[in-house]
Every structure is written in C-alpha cells, then in structure tokens.
Design goal:
By secondary structure, this protein is of the alpha/beta class. The chain has one domain: Glycoside hydrolase/deacetylase (TIM Barrel), CATH 3.20.20. Helices cover 32% and strands 22% of the residues. It is built from eleven helices and 17 strands. Strands 1, 2, 3, 6, 7, 12, 13, 14 and 17 form a nine-stranded parallel β-sheet that branches. A two-stranded antiparallel sheet has the order 4-5. A two-stranded antiparallel sheet has the order 8-9. The longest helix has 19 residues. It is globular. It starts with a strand and ends in a 6-residue tail after the last helix. The C terminus is likely disordered. The structure holds zinc ion (ZN).
C-alpha cells in the first residue's frame, strides 16, 4: 500500500497587517506601493534545514504577482531559492491576483477574468526572467481559481496546481478584499480539469492535486473559520488567546499552522490510510505558510509551528505496513511517470 505525501509552502512576505495578530509585523497593503515586510525570512534557512535533515522534499511556492509584490521576492532571495532547488526541493509559484483599488485605496483580489489571466501570465514571465526557468507547480493565493486562471496556468506549462480545497467556498474575507474562491463540487482526488469548468474532470494537461480534505463535518468548520475571519469580528479573533485558538480546529483540510489545533490532521491521515487500504495507493497533499515560523508578537521563532509540523510528520512516518513516499508537487505527475507506473 502506497501513501504519497506532498507538502508545499506558500512562501511570501509577512502576512498582511489586516490579519489577526499581524497588525505590527504585517505587510501594509493599503498603500501603493505597498510596504512589504520580510521578517520571517530570518528563519527560512532554519526551516529548510529542518526538512532537509528529515529528508523531506518541500515545494516552495514563491510569491509573485503583478502588484503589490511583483518580482521582488524572486530578486531579493534569488540565491537562496536556487540553493533550495539544487538541494532537491522544488521551486513553484504562488500567485496572488491583486489589483489596486484607487477608490478604497487598497490592494484587492480581482475577479475580472481578463485581469486574472494577465496577472498570471506576467507572474510566470517574472519568475522565468529572474530564475531562468518556468515553474512546474502552483498554488494560487487564497485558493483563487477561475477558468481563465486555469487556462493560463495550463498554457504556461504548469504541470500541477494545488489550489483546490474541495467543498470550500468563500465570498471574500477581510472586508471583502480577498479570499474569493469556490471549490464546491471539486473532486477530492487528483484530476485533469475541464477547460469549460475547472472543478470538473476533463482533458486539460495540467493536473489538479487538491489539498487533502475531510468529507462532511468539515464544511461546518469551514463556515466557522469564515465567520471568525469576517471583518466585523476580526478584532474578536485577534483577542482570542493563543491557547484558546489552539484548542479550536476550524480547518477541515491539511493545513499546518501554529495558530490552530492540529487535531484534525489525525482524522485526515486516517481517511487517506483507509483509501490506500482499499485502492492500493493514496495521496496526502498539504500546505503551510513559511511565514508562520515567525511569532509576530514575540518577534522570535514560533515553536508551535514546528510542533505541529513534527506531529504530522511523525504520524505519517511511523505508519506500519505502508510505503510512505514524500514527493514534490510536480513529481505527483512526472515522478509517477518516471517510476514506470501509469500517469495520474
Ligand atoms: Zn498567499
């Protein structure tokens, strides 16, 4: 029985200062040009060494957009990024579809398909111009997706997208400025999307590898996290003590974070094991934010983050009777092919 595990990181600036807890250390997206903060990157090497010691390849999805960050992260950390690539990690891309709203003086997630396609195209070019190669994998910022985005990623040579969180639907958080996504009805297993509907299987070359998601109960929990993140009560969320937040499990998908309880992870692993037992193989696709290595209040490394990472990795690696393989995102497609088995 084969269990393939792919962990990827949304690798970007400090979270925006409108997110709970980040009012002091967060990037300011209410200015043009934005004020981008990189404090967490002090701990980047420590984080990457942690994974290297465990011999777990990570897919670092580097933030690129057409504003407010542009190609700044690629240029600032070019040598570090290329170093990670040569050590066996994968370098993919993480694109936010922000555009400047001059009426509200805020960077906001656009929902205009023409604008989305242009941002994705430009981001892929920025990536190639700085690093010298095109990315093979992607996770869109805030799980955003549309037919226009999927089409542009596919024609841009992306092999694997991991933006899907099946069942997840959000009409905008943080005052409606971002986190618009609709993954209701998307399959929970990897699939090639339909070019008329990114949520249905079809004939596109790109592989959608959804973040591993629990089935039913989670949808209510997803509603809770939406509620907690709503602008009107965002202050309440920020005031919840870290201890309280660590006993709440709002996410129903494989997201490793220091801010919420990791208790759901065992259930997600159990679900995948059952599937591997029934079908001979299963995938676990999970993500985290590298910036979570920084505790924004104490300005030091956040030990709860590695605690939760450890918990997941230990759970998976000590499984008996399973052939557990850690994979980069694009290897979910190419690796399977290379090993002689049929392509996903
Ligand atoms: Zn992001």
């Amino acid at each position: 029985m084969e269990l393939t595990v792919a962990l990827c990181s949304d690798t970007e600036d400090n979270p925006p200062n409108y997110l709970p807890g980040w009012s002091n250390k967060g990037s300011n997206y209410d200015k043009n040009p934005a004020i981008i903060m990189w404090d967490w990157t002090r701990h980047w090497q420590d984080l990457s060494e942690y994974f290297h010691e465990l011999e777990i390849p990570i897919t670092w999805l580097i933030r690129v957009d057409d504003g407010p960050v542009y190609d700044r992260m690629l240029r600032l950390f070019r040598n570090d990024i290329l170093g990670l690539e040569s050590s066996g990690d994968e370098i993919g891309i993480h694109i936010h579809t922000f555009s400047w709203d001059s009426v509200y003086s805020k960077w906001k997630q656009t929902r205009d398909p023409v604008c989305e396609a242009r941002i994705v195209r430009r981001s892929l070019e920025y990536f190639k111009d700085v690093l010298g190669f095109y990315p093979l994998s992607v996770r869109m910022g805030w799980n955003a997706m549309s037919n226009a985005i999927m089409e542009t990623l596919d024609s841009g040579g992306i092999l694997v997208d991991a933006s899907a969180i099946p069942g997840n639907n959000c009409r905008g958080k943080f005052g409606g400025r971002d986190n618009f996504c609709d993954w209701r009805g998307a399959p929970q297993e990897p699939y090639h999307p339909n070019n008329q509907d990114y949520k249905s299987p079809g004939g596109m070359r790109i592989l959608e590898a959804p973040i591993t998601t629990l089935n039913t109960r989670g949808r209510k929990l997803g509603g809770l996290v939406d509620l907690l993140s709503n602008y009107r009560i965002i202050h309440m969320l920020a005031k919840l003590s870290p201890l309280t937040r660590r006993t709440i499990t709002p996410n129903f998908f494989l997201y490793i974070s220091p801010w919420w309880s990791a208790s759901i992870i065992d259930k997600i692993v159990d679900m995948s094991l059952k599937k591997a037992e029934e079908e001979g193989k299963a995938f676990l696709v999970g993500f985290f934010h590298s910036s979570d290595i920084l505790d924004p209040k104490k300005d030091c490394e956040n030990s709860f983050f590695k605690g939760n990472l450890n918990r997941f990795i230990k759970t998976v690696t000590k499984l008996k009777g399973f052939d557990v393989k850690f994979s980069t995102l694009s290897s979910l497609k190419t690796g399977v092919k290379q090993s002689g088995a049929s392509e996903v």
